[in-house]
Amino acid sequence: MAASGKVSALRLPPLPTIREIIKLFRLQAVKQLSQNFLLDLRLTDKIVRKAGNLTNAYVYEVGPGPGGITRSILNANVAELLVVEKDTRFIPGLQMLSDAAPGKLKIVHGDVLTFMIEKSFPASLKTPWEDDPPNVHIIGNLPFSVSTPLIIKWLENISNRNGPFAYGRTQMTLTFQKEVAERLVATTGSKQRSRLSVMAQYLCNVKHIFTIPGQAFVPKPEVDVGVVHFTPLIQPKIEQPFKLVEKVVQNVFQFRRKYCHRGLGMLFPEARRLESTGKLLELADIDPTLRPTQLSILHFRSLCDIYRKMCDEDQQLFGYNFREELKQRRDKQKKEEKESYGLEMPL
């Protein structure tokens, strides 16, 4: 580990270009893993600049690939850079960077979805949640295939103040498909408003800071890429457990073109669905004919607060899943059809 405190400025020595690294180690992007390489160091430098002042910072980079953003982070005079890469093909190229920056770069072969970062950086970096963000940053050019599950995982970590957020309100600067980036920052009433909008914005200050054209990547994706910055809020806008908020939001947006009461009804067993949905909407003081995209964070806060009270009154309610009830009904119907046609096997 690099010692905390002032560190000397670092400029990497002359190295092969990222394009030369790709040729040297015969690296090819794997389409199934939605890999796209960013070769223009002017763009990787811009991503790193937008992350904020990284002088003496401890940085966690996810999905470094051939190391374009990695170089820019190292040139930003960080105290230490931890990279987690699942694809073993990229490790030799990253090791070359590590050799060029002794004591600065730590390489972990692993999966960002399961990697435990809590003990990777010095405990002295931890700051109270109410204070300014710690000198810890997350930066990454995320493969499209993992970007959504990963940000949902990290949002849950923010809610629970664990994982990368055991250090405090760790800031994140990440790439997403432009469409996903637009959803993350979408305001109430916009067409892009979605589950991601609500889940991100009730926990973070979210900014879509700039867009990178698809042709800047190799191979060129079919879409442009948005760079998004997240700063966790001191106080979440909905003060309920993450899983409860997620369940309410998911149910609302699964019928995004219907009135909001349609999705909210799926929170309750069919036998009392109409009555319970009406009670939820009445107590939350919400117009049942609003569309999901028209619901604000304040609307969702009211819904989650009332739903929590209803779950406290009925201990089995939170575990209810309408899909399971629907499957049981279909299975029962099939069994009855077999019996009616004499197809049931004799005992």
Automatic annotation (TrEMBL):
Keyword match Endoplasmic reticulum: no
Gene3D superfamilies from the UniProt entry: Ribosomal RNA adenine dimethylase-like, domain 2, Vaccinia Virus protein VP39
Gene Ontology terms: biological process: transcription initiation at mitochondrial promoter
InterPro entries linked to this entry: KsgA/Erm, rRNA_Ade_diMease-like_C, rRNA_Ade_Mease_Trfase_CS, rRNA_Ade_methylase_Trfase_N, rRNA_adenine_dimethylase, SAM-dependent_MTases_sf
Keywords associated with the record: DNA-binding, Methyltransferase, Mitochondrion, RNA-binding, rRNA processing, S-adenosyl-L-methionine, Transcription, Transcription regulation, Transferase, Transit peptide
One GO CC term on file: mitochondrial matrix
Subcellular location: Mitochondrion
SMART domains xref list: rADc
Chain residues that bind S-adenosyl-L-methionine: N36, L38, G63, E85, D111, N141
EC number: 2.1.1.-
GO terms for MF: DNA binding; mitochondrial transcription factor activity; RNA binding; rRNA (adenine-N6,N6-)-dimethyltransferase activity; S-adenosyl-L-methionine binding
Residue span, Ribosomal RNA adenine methylase transferase N-terminal domain: 43-234
Catalytic EC class: transferase
PANTHER family (alphabetical): DIMETHYLADENOSINE TRANSFERASE, DIMETHYLADENOSINE TRANSFERASE 1, MITOCHONDRIAL
Family: Belongs to the class I-like SAM-binding methyltransferase superfamily. rRNA adenine N(6)-methyltransferase family. KsgA subfamily.
Name the UniProt record assigns to this protein: rRNA adenine N(6)-methyltransferase
Organism, as annotated: Heterocephalus glaber (Naked mole rat)
